[in-house]
Amino acid sequence: MTERIKGRVIAPSASLLDAMKQMDEVKVKTLLVFEKEHFEGLITIGDIQRAIIQNIALTEPVSRILDKDKIYGYQSEGEEAIKDKMRRLRAEVMPIVDDRGELVDVWFWGDLFKKAELAEREKINLPVVIMAGGKGTRLKPITNVIPKPLIPIGDKTILETILDQFEEIGCTKFYMSVNYKADMMKYYLGQLEHHYDIEFFQEEKPLGTIGSVSLLKGKITTPFIVSNCDSINEQDYRDVYDYHVSNRNDLTIVTMVKSFKIPYGVIETGEDGLMVSLSEKPELTYQVNTGVYILNPSCIDEIPEGEFFHITHLMEKVKARGGRVGCFPVSEHSWHDMGEWPEYLKMIDVL
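^ thats the sequence. predicted structure below, dont judge the formating
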């Protein structure tokens, strides 16, 4: 068993940020927590996301959020009973414990089920607005020839990859804001074997990162997703929607947890230049906007018609009236951006 869980073990004293980084590194969403040789429990990416939402610092130890009431399989249970638990929980990993709670085995989803079975989850059919009108100036010279949404990622364009991800969770109606090389995008999508249900709408002049959505007033009457066209997120957006609804948000931002290691000793000074504290090579963590949002339909009425208006202006407007702007965090390596050439080259290497 030791070899099978290699890379998936973490100590309860490790920080939540360490756990998130380890999940990214070994490409898993669940780690087994061991205090030396003793099994303490499981920690999932969902546990960490909920901790961040509850404003628990990522420097806190894993033990701070360890759920002692998680459901495990028992050695005395039959195989089908344990499989049923895994299906119900959509559990990537299922520890098998004896009557004393000691770990005796670990079952993995991939060993027991077909990959497609993991998708057995209620679909959501939210409208999706794709912001595809930008010129992609940071990716010149390729965007001199083709628009950024048609840049290839493997054997598909990034636009198709984004659309497919939304279709997988049940979203079928798309609205696409276009401007630069709009005819080329319409032609390309029109000749694909797979037909996407897309309604195009065109801004006659640049209207910022959300301004063109004012053109959809009266067309969208439910919560909806807004996505840019230069990044891919491995997060299941159904989790984001569940958070949006349960937290009663007007607007939810999908954020990426980004950490920066300062390679120097950082000194904080006070009055008269006297040293207050010294931190040796500290690590700073921020939540970064990924360019994907869930909005309530009422937000459309707050976007002025025909005016240049950024999503940040809408966030400020919603907050100013006492509305709720929430943030749903994803791990650093689950978000892939191609805004500039170095990021694009990394993306095609990873995906």
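The first strand starts at residue 9 and ends at 10.
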